[in-house]
Amino acid sequence: MPISRLPMLGRRFLMLGGAAAFSATGLRPVPAVARAADSAVSGGSTIRLIARPGRAALAGPPHSEPETTVWGYDGRVPGPEIRVRQGERLRVVLENRLPEETTIHWHGLRVPNAMDGVPHLTQPPIAPGESFAYEFDATDAGTYWYHPHVRSFEQVERGLYGPLVIEERELPRTIDRDVTWVLDDWRLLEDAQIAGGFGNAMEAGMTGRVGNTVTVNGRVTDGGFAVRSGERLRLRLVNAANARIFGLVFEGHEPVVVALDGQPVTPHAPEDGRVVVGPGMRVDLVLDMTGRPGARARVLDTYYAKLEYRLLEIAYGAEPLRDRPPTAPIPTLPANPVPEPNLARAERHAVVLGGGMMNHLEGALVDGRWLDAREMMRRGLIWTVNGTAAAPGVHVHEPLAVLRRGASYLLEIRNETAWPHPMHLHGHSFRVIARNGVPTRHREWQDTVLIPRRESVEIAFVADNPGDWMFHCHVLEHQAAGMMGLVRVA
Ligand SMILES: [Cu+2]
Protein backbone atom coordinates (compact mmCIF):
# COMPACT_ATOMS: atom_id res chain seq x y z
CA MET A 1 0.00 0.00 0.00
CA PRO A 2 1.50 3.32 -1.00
CA ILE A 3 2.18 5.97 1.54
CA SER A 4 -0.42 8.68 1.28
CA ARG A 5 0.79 12.13 0.46
CA LEU A 6 0.26 15.72 1.41
CA PRO A 7 -0.47 18.51 -0.99
CA MET A 8 2.62 20.47 -1.84
CA LEU A 9 2.84 24.15 -1.15
CA GLY A 10 0.84 25.64 -3.94
CA ARG A 11 0.84 25.44 -7.68
CA ARG A 12 3.93 27.56 -8.10
CA PHE A 13 5.83 25.09 -5.99
CA LEU A 14 4.63 22.20 -8.09
CA MET A 15 6.02 23.69 -11.26
CA LEU A 16 9.52 23.43 -9.87
CA GLY A 17 11.92 20.70 -10.82
CA GLY A 18 12.20 18.89 -7.51
CA ALA A 19 8.47 18.42 -7.26
CA ALA A 20 7.96 17.09 -10.75
CA ALA A 21 8.50 13.48 -9.82
CA PHE A 22 4.98 12.95 -8.58
CA SER A 23 1.57 14.46 -8.65
CA ALA A 24 0.13 15.90 -5.48
CA THR A 25 -3.44 16.22 -6.64
CA GLY A 26 -6.25 14.16 -5.26
CA LEU A 27 -4.24 12.65 -2.46
CA ARG A 28 -5.68 12.58 0.97
CA PRO A 29 -3.88 14.30 3.81
CA VAL A 30 -1.55 12.20 5.86
CA PRO A 31 -2.61 10.91 9.24
CA ALA A 32 0.20 10.08 11.55
CA VAL A 33 0.65 8.49 14.89
CA ALA A 34 3.23 9.12 17.48
CA ARG A 35 5.11 6.43 19.24
CA ALA A 36 7.28 7.35 22.18
CA ALA A 37 10.76 8.13 20.96
CA ASP A 38 13.05 5.35 22.15
CA SER A 39 15.01 6.51 25.10
CA ALA A 40 18.72 5.98 24.91
CA VAL A 41 20.47 7.17 27.82
CA SER A 42 21.36 8.59 31.08
CA GLY A 43 23.84 10.80 32.74
CA GLY A 44 27.24 9.66 33.78
CA SER A 45 27.69 7.02 31.13
CA THR A 46 29.07 7.58 27.66
CA ILE A 47 26.53 7.49 24.87
CA ARG A 48 27.61 5.95 21.59
CA LEU A 49 25.91 7.02 18.41
CA ILE A 50 26.60 5.74 14.93
CA ALA A 51 25.61 7.89 11.97
CA ARG A 52 24.82 5.36 9.27
CA PRO A 53 22.38 4.42 6.55
CA GLY A 54 19.36 2.46 7.67
CA ARG A 55 15.83 1.61 6.68
CA ALA A 56 12.74 3.18 8.14
CA ALA A 57 9.13 2.10 7.85
CA LEU A 58 7.81 5.65 7.79
CA ALA A 59 4.27 4.47 7.15
CA GLY A 60 4.37 2.11 10.11
CA PRO A 61 2.25 -1.02 10.42
CA PRO A 62 0.19 -2.26 8.70
CA HIS A 63 1.70 -0.37 5.75
CA SER A 64 5.36 -0.93 6.59
CA GLU A 65 6.35 -1.76 3.02
CA PRO A 66 8.13 -0.39 1.21
CA GLU A 67 10.72 0.85 3.64
CA THR A 68 12.62 4.05 3.02
CA THR A 69 16.39 4.17 2.91
CA VAL A 70 17.45 6.86 5.39
CA TRP A 71 20.54 8.14 7.13
CA GLY A 72 20.01 8.05 10.86
CA TYR A 73 21.70 7.97 14.23
CA ASP A 74 22.02 4.25 14.91
CA GLY A 75 20.26 3.97 11.55
CA ARG A 76 16.96 5.11 13.08
CA VAL A 77 14.61 8.03 12.60
CA PRO A 78 14.53 9.92 14.81
CA GLY A 79 17.81 9.06 16.51
CA PRO A 80 17.67 7.90 20.13
CA GLU A 81 16.15 10.37 22.56
CA ILE A 82 18.97 11.51 24.80
CA ARG A 83 17.67 12.30 28.28
CA VAL A 84 19.80 13.63 31.11
CA ARG A 85 19.22 15.54 34.29
CA GLN A 86 20.16 19.22 34.49
CA GLY A 87 23.70 19.65 35.80
CA GLU A 88 24.89 16.28 34.57
CA ARG A 89 27.79 15.90 32.19
CA LEU A 90 26.98 14.58 28.76
CA ARG A 91 29.48 12.46 26.83
CA VAL A 92 28.60 11.33 23.33
CA VAL A 93 30.95 9.52 21.00
CA LEU A 94 29.81 9.75 17.40
CA GLU A 95 31.08 7.24 14.88
CA ASN A 96 30.67 8.19 11.24
CA ARG A 97 29.60 5.33 8.97
CA LEU A 98 28.17 7.61 6.32
CA PRO A 99 29.73 7.92 2.87
CA GLU A 100 30.68 11.53 3.66
CA GLU A 101 31.92 13.81 6.44
CA THR A 102 29.63 14.81 9.29
CA THR A 103 29.44 16.45 12.74
CA ILE A 104 26.83 16.88 15.47
CA HIS A 105 25.52 20.30 16.41
CA TRP A 106 23.68 20.38 19.76
CA HIS A 107 20.91 22.71 18.76
CA GLY A 108 20.04 25.23 21.46
CA LEU A 109 22.53 24.03 24.04
CA ARG A 110 24.95 26.61 25.36
CA VAL A 111 28.01 24.40 24.95
CA PRO A 112 31.70 25.38 24.83
CA ASN A 113 32.63 26.48 21.32
CA ALA A 114 34.78 23.41 20.62
CA MET A 115 31.70 21.18 21.16
CA ASP A 116 29.40 23.10 18.80
CA GLY A 117 29.86 20.81 15.82
CA VAL A 118 30.50 23.36 13.08
CA PRO A 119 32.91 21.89 10.53
CA HIS A 120 36.26 23.66 10.11
CA LEU A 121 35.13 26.42 12.47
CA THR A 122 34.90 24.56 15.80
CA GLN A 123 36.22 21.11 14.85
CA PRO A 124 37.54 19.20 11.84
CA PRO A 125 34.68 17.39 10.12
CA ILE A 126 34.48 13.71 11.08
CA ALA A 127 35.59 11.66 8.08
CA PRO A 128 33.90 8.37 7.17
CA GLY A 129 35.19 5.69 9.53
CA GLU A 130 36.30 8.22 12.17
CA SER A 131 34.82 9.12 15.55
CA PHE A 132 34.58 12.26 17.64
CA ALA A 133 33.88 12.61 21.36
CA TYR A 134 31.55 15.41 22.45
CA GLU A 135 31.49 16.31 26.13
CA PHE A 136 29.78 19.17 27.93
CA ASP A 137 27.57 20.03 30.88
CA ALA A 138 23.79 19.97 30.60
CA THR A 139 23.43 23.53 31.85
CA ASP A 140 19.86 24.41 30.91
CA ALA A 141 16.84 22.17 31.40
CA GLY A 142 14.53 21.91 28.41
CA THR A 143 13.84 20.42 24.99
CA TYR A 144 16.70 20.43 22.48
CA TRP A 145 17.79 18.38 19.51
CA TYR A 146 20.90 17.26 17.69
CA HIS A 147 21.75 17.11 14.01
CA PRO A 148 24.74 17.47 11.64
CA HIS A 149 26.13 20.81 10.54
CA VAL A 150 27.74 19.41 7.40
CA ARG A 151 25.56 19.71 4.31
CA SER A 152 22.60 19.86 6.67
CA PHE A 153 20.15 20.38 3.82
CA GLU A 154 20.83 16.79 2.75
CA GLN A 155 21.97 15.05 5.96
CA VAL A 156 19.07 16.29 8.09
CA GLU A 157 16.65 15.68 5.23
CA ARG A 158 17.80 12.06 5.01
CA GLY A 159 16.92 11.58 8.68
CA LEU A 160 19.93 12.54 10.80
CA TYR A 161 18.37 14.14 13.87
CA GLY A 162 17.29 13.21 17.36
CA PRO A 163 15.68 14.81 20.41
CA LEU A 164 17.67 15.75 23.50
CA VAL A 165 15.78 16.38 26.73
CA ILE A 166 17.39 17.88 29.81
CA GLU A 167 15.10 17.27 32.74
CA GLU A 168 14.63 19.83 35.49
CA ARG A 169 16.40 18.96 38.74
CA GLU A 170 12.97 18.69 40.28
CA LEU A 171 10.39 17.45 37.84
CA PRO A 172 7.26 19.57 37.74
CA ARG A 173 4.54 17.95 39.82
CA THR A 174 1.06 17.40 38.40
CA ILE A 175 2.45 16.27 35.04
CA ASP A 176 1.33 12.71 34.39
CA ARG A 177 3.29 11.97 31.25
CA ASP A 178 6.15 13.54 29.32
CA VAL A 179 5.92 12.99 25.56
CA THR A 180 8.15 14.10 22.69
CA TRP A 181 6.87 14.62 19.16
CA VAL A 182 9.63 15.14 16.63
CA LEU A 183 7.96 16.56 13.52
CA ASP A 184 9.44 16.16 10.07
CA ASP A 185 8.36 16.15 6.49
CA TRP A 186 9.81 14.11 3.69
CA ARG A 187 9.69 14.28 -0.06
CA LEU A 188 9.06 10.71 -1.09
CA LEU A 189 8.79 9.18 -4.51
CA GLU A 190 6.15 6.59 -5.38
CA ASP A 191 8.48 3.79 -4.23
CA ALA A 192 8.77 5.53 -0.82
CA GLN A 193 12.40 6.51 -1.43
CA ILE A 194 13.62 10.00 -0.66
CA ALA A 195 13.58 12.21 -3.76
CA GLY A 196 16.89 13.69 -4.86
CA GLY A 197 17.41 17.31 -5.80
CA PHE A 198 18.68 18.39 -2.38
CA GLY A 199 19.43 22.09 -2.25
CA ASN A 200 17.47 22.78 -5.48
CA ALA A 201 18.31 26.40 -6.33
CA MET A 202 14.78 27.47 -7.27
CA GLU A 203 13.34 26.12 -4.04
CA ALA A 204 16.22 27.59 -2.11
CA GLY A 205 15.12 31.03 -3.28
CA MET A 206 11.57 30.51 -2.01
CA THR A 207 10.11 28.18 0.61
CA GLY A 208 13.02 25.77 0.80
CA ARG A 209 12.41 22.04 0.41
CA VAL A 210 8.94 21.25 1.67
CA GLY A 211 7.98 17.60 1.47
CA ASN A 212 4.83 15.60 0.79
CA THR A 213 4.80 13.26 3.79
CA VAL A 214 4.70 14.36 7.41
CA THR A 215 5.90 12.12 10.23
CA VAL A 216 5.73 12.32 13.99
CA ASN A 217 8.64 10.44 15.60
CA GLY A 218 9.42 8.93 12.22
CA ARG A 219 5.98 7.43 11.57
CA VAL A 220 2.97 7.99 9.37
CA THR A 221 0.05 5.68 10.12
CA ASP A 222 -3.69 5.63 10.48
CA GLY A 223 -3.56 5.03 14.21
CA GLY A 224 -4.20 7.55 16.94
CA PHE A 225 -2.21 9.05 19.77
CA ALA A 226 -3.45 7.21 22.86
CA VAL A 227 -4.41 9.24 25.92
CA ARG A 228 -6.62 8.84 28.99
CA SER A 229 -9.31 11.15 30.23
CA GLY A 230 -8.08 13.36 33.06
CA GLU A 231 -4.40 13.13 32.11
CA ARG A 232 -2.11 16.13 32.11
CA LEU A 233 0.60 15.83 29.47
CA ARG A 234 3.78 17.68 28.84
CA LEU A 235 4.18 17.59 25.09
CA ARG A 236 7.58 18.52 23.67
CA LEU A 237 7.36 19.53 20.00
CA VAL A 238 10.54 19.57 17.91
CA ASN A 239 10.50 20.73 14.29
CA ALA A 240 13.24 18.80 12.49
CA ALA A 241 11.97 19.64 8.99
CA ASN A 242 14.24 21.48 6.56
CA ALA A 243 11.65 24.06 5.69
CA ARG A 244 8.10 23.23 6.73
CA ILE A 245 6.54 25.48 9.37
CA PHE A 246 3.90 23.78 11.52
CA GLY A 247 0.84 25.51 12.99
CA LEU A 248 -0.91 22.97 15.21
CA VAL A 249 -4.49 23.23 16.39
CA PHE A 250 -5.68 20.75 19.03
CA GLU A 251 -9.42 20.57 18.38
CA GLY A 252 -11.45 20.77 21.58
CA HIS A 253 -8.35 21.20 23.73
CA GLU A 254 -6.51 24.16 25.19
CA PRO A 255 -2.75 23.72 25.05
CA VAL A 256 -0.67 26.00 27.25
CA VAL A 257 2.82 26.99 26.11
CA VAL A 258 5.30 26.54 28.97
CA ALA A 259 8.66 26.67 27.16
CA LEU A 260 10.10 27.84 23.86
CA ASP A 261 13.38 26.47 22.52
CA GLY A 262 13.91 24.75 25.85
CA GLN A 263 13.64 27.90 27.94
CA PRO A 264 10.66 28.46 30.25
CA VAL A 265 8.14 31.18 29.36
CA THR A 266 5.24 32.57 31.31
CA PRO A 267 2.57 29.91 30.70
CA HIS A 268 0.17 31.22 28.07
CA ALA A 269 -2.31 30.15 25.44
CA PRO A 270 -0.84 30.19 21.92
CA GLU A 271 -1.92 33.11 19.75
CA ASP A 272 -5.19 32.31 17.95
CA GLY A 273 -5.09 28.87 19.60
CA ARG A 274 -2.43 27.73 17.15
CA VAL A 275 1.00 26.46 18.12
CA VAL A 276 3.49 27.67 15.51
CA VAL A 277 6.79 25.79 15.27
CA GLY A 278 9.31 26.91 12.65
CA PRO A 279 12.22 24.74 11.50
CA GLY A 280 14.70 24.16 14.32
CA MET A 281 12.32 25.44 16.98
CA ARG A 282 10.84 23.63 19.97
CA VAL A 283 7.65 24.31 21.91
CA ASP A 284 6.74 22.64 25.21
CA LEU A 285 3.03 22.41 25.91
CA VAL A 286 0.99 21.35 28.87
CA LEU A 287 -2.08 19.62 27.52
CA ASP A 288 -5.00 18.65 29.73
CA MET A 289 -6.96 15.70 28.37
CA THR A 290 -10.46 16.97 28.95
CA GLY A 291 -12.27 14.59 26.59
CA ARG A 292 -14.49 11.70 27.57
CA PRO A 293 -13.36 8.06 27.51
CA GLY A 294 -13.54 6.75 23.95
CA ALA A 295 -13.56 10.24 22.39
CA ARG A 296 -11.39 11.25 19.45
CA ALA A 297 -10.06 14.69 18.59
CA ARG A 298 -8.06 15.89 15.63
CA VAL A 299 -4.73 17.68 15.70
CA LEU A 300 -4.64 19.81 12.55
CA ASP A 301 -1.76 21.59 10.92
CA THR A 302 -3.28 24.81 9.56
CA TYR A 303 -0.12 26.82 8.97
CA TYR A 304 -0.35 27.09 5.19
CA ALA A 305 -3.60 28.62 3.99
CA LYS A 306 -5.84 26.14 2.16
CA LEU A 307 -3.39 23.29 2.78
CA GLU A 308 -4.55 22.22 6.20
CA TYR A 309 -4.43 18.54 7.01
CA ARG A 310 -4.92 16.25 9.97
CA LEU A 311 -1.58 15.55 11.61
CA LEU A 312 -3.04 12.88 13.87
CA GLU A 313 -5.97 11.99 16.07
CA ILE A 314 -5.98 12.00 19.83
CA ALA A 315 -7.62 8.74 20.87
CA TYR A 316 -9.05 8.46 24.38
CA GLY A 317 -8.91 5.07 25.98
CA ALA A 318 -11.94 3.49 27.62
CA GLU A 319 -10.52 3.84 31.11
CA PRO A 320 -10.12 7.37 32.51
CA LEU A 321 -7.05 8.17 34.58
CA ARG A 322 -9.19 10.37 36.83
CA ASP A 323 -12.47 12.26 36.60
CA ARG A 324 -10.90 15.44 35.33
CA PRO A 325 -7.38 16.83 34.78
CA PRO A 326 -5.58 18.25 37.79
CA THR A 327 -7.03 21.54 38.98
CA ALA A 328 -3.64 22.78 40.20
CA PRO A 329 -2.45 25.69 38.08
CA ILE A 330 -0.04 24.89 35.29
CA PRO A 331 3.41 25.28 36.77
CA THR A 332 5.89 27.91 35.67
CA LEU A 333 9.08 25.98 34.97
CA PRO A 334 12.13 27.01 36.99
CA ALA A 335 14.34 29.51 35.17
CA ASN A 336 17.63 28.38 33.68
CA PRO A 337 20.89 30.14 34.57
CA VAL A 338 20.85 32.38 31.48
CA PRO A 339 22.22 35.86 32.16
CA GLU A 340 19.66 38.66 31.77
CA PRO A 341 20.80 41.28 29.23
CA ASN A 342 21.06 44.86 30.46
CA LEU A 343 18.70 46.54 28.00
CA ALA A 344 19.53 50.07 29.14
CA ARG A 345 23.20 49.59 28.34
CA ALA A 346 22.96 47.08 25.49
CA GLU A 347 24.84 47.97 22.33
CA ARG A 348 22.48 47.99 19.34
CA HIS A 349 23.23 46.32 16.03
CA ALA A 350 21.09 46.10 12.92
CA VAL A 351 20.87 42.85 10.98
CA VAL A 352 19.18 42.97 7.59
CA LEU A 353 18.07 39.82 5.81
CA GLY A 354 17.93 40.27 2.05
CA GLY A 355 17.61 38.45 -1.26
CA GLY A 356 15.37 35.60 -2.34
CA MET A 357 12.79 35.38 -5.08
CA MET A 358 10.28 38.20 -5.48
CA ASN A 359 12.90 40.66 -4.35
CA HIS A 360 15.45 42.82 -6.06
CA LEU A 361 19.05 41.93 -5.25
CA GLU A 362 21.94 43.72 -6.93
CA GLY A 363 24.56 41.44 -5.53
CA ALA A 364 26.48 40.72 -2.36
CA LEU A 365 29.88 40.25 -0.83
CA VAL A 366 30.97 36.62 -1.08
CA ASP A 367 34.32 35.72 0.49
CA GLY A 368 35.14 39.43 0.54
CA ARG A 369 34.42 39.94 -3.17
CA TRP A 370 31.43 41.71 -4.68
CA LEU A 371 29.40 39.41 -6.92
CA ASP A 372 26.42 40.59 -8.91
CA ALA A 373 23.14 38.72 -8.57
CA ARG A 374 23.68 36.69 -11.74
CA GLU A 375 27.09 35.46 -10.62
CA MET A 376 25.64 34.68 -7.20
CA MET A 377 22.87 32.59 -8.75
CA ARG A 378 25.46 30.74 -10.79
CA ARG A 379 27.06 29.69 -7.49
CA GLY A 380 23.73 28.81 -5.89
CA LEU A 381 23.61 31.91 -3.72
CA ILE A 382 20.49 34.02 -3.32
CA TRP A 383 20.25 35.19 0.31
CA THR A 384 22.19 37.78 2.25
CA VAL A 385 22.81 38.83 5.83
CA ASN A 386 23.91 42.48 5.99
CA GLY A 387 24.82 42.41 2.31
CA THR A 388 27.00 39.32 2.62
CA ALA A 389 26.28 35.81 1.35
CA ALA A 390 28.06 32.81 2.85
CA ALA A 391 29.58 30.63 0.15
CA PRO A 392 27.95 27.18 0.06
CA GLY A 393 29.33 24.85 2.70
CA VAL A 394 31.79 27.41 4.02
CA HIS A 395 31.50 28.07 7.75
CA VAL A 396 34.62 30.13 8.28
CA HIS A 397 33.98 33.79 7.56
CA GLU A 398 34.81 37.29 8.60
CA PRO A 399 32.53 37.95 11.58
CA LEU A 400 29.38 39.99 11.04
CA ALA A 401 30.15 41.49 14.44
CA VAL A 402 32.74 41.13 17.18
CA LEU A 403 31.09 41.17 20.60
CA ARG A 404 32.80 41.87 23.90
CA ARG A 405 32.55 38.97 26.28
CA GLY A 406 30.12 39.72 29.11
CA ALA A 407 28.51 42.74 27.40
CA SER A 408 24.82 43.01 26.49
CA TYR A 409 23.70 43.31 22.88
CA LEU A 410 20.44 44.12 21.22
CA LEU A 411 20.05 43.05 17.61
CA GLU A 412 17.29 44.44 15.48
CA ILE A 413 16.77 41.83 12.77
CA ARG A 414 14.82 43.10 9.78
CA ASN A 415 13.51 40.60 7.29
CA GLU A 416 13.39 42.56 4.05
CA THR A 417 12.59 39.47 2.01
CA ALA A 418 9.29 37.98 0.82
CA TRP A 419 9.72 34.76 2.87
CA PRO A 420 9.75 33.87 6.55
CA HIS A 421 13.08 32.97 8.17
CA PRO A 422 13.71 31.10 11.44
CA MET A 423 17.01 32.68 12.47
CA HIS A 424 19.21 30.59 14.77
CA LEU A 425 22.12 31.80 16.90
CA HIS A 426 24.57 29.22 18.23
CA GLY A 427 25.99 29.17 21.74
CA HIS A 428 23.44 31.52 23.31
CA SER A 429 19.79 31.86 24.19
CA PHE A 430 18.40 35.32 23.56
CA ARG A 431 15.41 37.27 24.84
CA VAL A 432 12.93 38.13 22.14
CA ILE A 433 12.15 41.68 23.22
CA ALA A 434 9.83 43.02 20.53
CA ARG A 435 8.20 42.22 17.22
CA ASN A 436 7.69 45.08 14.78
CA GLY A 437 8.41 47.45 17.65
CA VAL A 438 5.73 45.95 19.91
CA PRO A 439 7.08 44.44 23.15
CA THR A 440 6.58 40.71 23.58
CA ARG A 441 4.55 39.57 26.58
CA HIS A 442 5.71 36.21 27.86
CA ARG A 443 9.42 36.69 28.62
CA GLU A 444 10.41 34.62 25.63
CA TRP A 445 13.93 33.19 25.53
CA GLN A 446 14.70 31.49 22.24
CA ASP A 447 17.60 30.29 20.12
CA THR A 448 15.66 30.29 16.85
CA VAL A 449 13.25 33.11 16.10
CA LEU A 450 10.75 32.97 13.25
CA ILE A 451 10.58 36.30 11.45
CA PRO A 452 7.67 36.64 9.01
CA ARG A 453 8.21 38.31 5.65
CA ARG A 454 8.89 42.05 5.82
CA GLU A 455 8.78 42.02 9.62
CA SER A 456 11.34 42.70 12.30
CA VAL A 457 12.28 41.41 15.73
CA GLU A 458 14.52 42.69 18.48
CA ILE A 459 16.54 40.15 20.38
CA ALA A 460 18.89 40.75 23.31
CA PHE A 461 21.49 38.64 25.05
CA VAL A 462 24.67 38.71 27.06
CA ALA A 463 27.60 37.62 24.91
CA ASP A 464 28.95 35.37 27.65
CA ASN A 465 30.12 32.36 25.63
CA PRO A 466 33.50 32.97 23.95
CA GLY A 467 34.12 31.77 20.42
CA ASP A 468 32.90 32.04 16.85
CA TRP A 469 29.18 31.25 16.60
CA MET A 470 27.07 30.68 13.53
CA PHE A 471 24.04 32.85 12.99
CA HIS A 472 21.91 31.45 10.21
CA CYS A 473 18.48 30.70 8.84
CA HIS A 474 17.21 27.25 9.79
CA VAL A 475 15.44 26.76 6.50
CA LEU A 476 18.37 24.59 5.53
CA GLU A 477 18.19 25.50 1.83
CA HIS A 478 18.30 29.19 2.75
CA GLN A 479 21.33 28.55 4.93
CA ALA A 480 23.06 26.73 2.07
CA ALA A 481 22.18 29.54 -0.35
CA GLY A 482 23.91 32.25 1.65
CA MET A 483 21.80 33.14 4.69
CA MET A 484 24.51 32.53 7.25
CA GLY A 485 27.16 34.47 9.05
CA LEU A 486 29.03 34.34 12.31
CA VAL A 487 29.39 36.49 15.37
CA ARG A 488 32.59 36.42 17.38
CA VAL A 489 32.53 36.70 21.16
CA ALA A 490 36.01 37.68 22.31
CU1 LIG B 1 15.43 31.55 5.63
From TrEMBL:
It comes from the Bacteria. This is Multicopper oxidase family protein. The keyword Oxidoreductase applies. It comes from Falsiroseomonas tokyonensis. Keywords: Metal-binding, Oxidoreductase, Signal. Pfam families: Cu-oxidase, Cu-oxidase_2, Cu-oxidase_3. InterPro entries: Cu-oxidase-like_N, Cu-oxidase_2nd, Cu-oxidase_C, Cu-oxidase_fam, Cu_oxidase_CS, Cu_oxidase_Cu_BS. Residues 1-23 form the signal peptide. PANTHER family: MULTI-COPPER OXIDASE, MULTICOPPER OXIDASE LPR1. PROSITE patterns: MULTICOPPER_OXIDASE1 (PS00079), MULTICOPPER_OXIDASE2 (PS00080). Residues 64-170, 179-291, 396-489 form the Plastocyanin-like domain.
